[in-house]
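Hey L., structure's done. Input below.
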Amino acid sequence: MNALNAMKNISSKTHIQLSKTFLRIPVFQEQVKQNQHQSLKRRLRIANELLKNNTIETNLAVINDLEQIAHNHPQYHWTIVDILTTFVRKNAPYTHQEEVTSNLSTKIRLDIQAALTVIARRDANEDPVNEQLDLSFTDMRGANLKGANLQQTNLYQANLAGANLRKANLAGTILSAANLSGANLYLANLEGTILSAANLSEANLSGANLHRASLYLASLHGAILYDTILDDANLRETKFSE
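Output:
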């Protein structure tokens, strides 16, 4: 009987302990979430600091880590996009067109290209409705942005001379006063894009969609316009020849 009572006592204590454990599970899970949240925020702060003054190799590793965080934790998507666009603006500032014409072959820095690649292939469905990518006043000469999703991006006075924008989505983008000379815009979507006073000289616009785009005062000297869609585009004072 003593043995039986002992077993009952053990069973009762075990039941109480298990009950307490299960009651603590939601609290434990919440603690795990909070710890993970704090850990990720710390990683983002460190990444932001590392991108300020470091080697290209370190920057490449940080950019890769940021893309992984954005992929695995969508709640940090826009924070990471903002970190990367800020990195590009600060490290690739605008170059005047006078300098560009004499140096079209300048290669884009590897870490700048890496940041742009991540931005271009991000999950745009995670972008906040009222937010806009800001890559204005940047030097992206020769950048590879093939198939990039840059819809509604602010590219005001950006330098994209010689850039590969083949099949890129630039619908609704602000490209006023931008330099796109010699850029490859084959089959690019430029519907509704603002290209006022933009330099598109010698750009390849074959098959590009410029429906309802504004080309007011834009320069298209030597541009390739085979099968380019220009219906309802604003061509007021657009320069097609010298």
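Residues 22 and 157 are 60 Å apart (CA to CA). The chain has five helices and no strands.

-- N.
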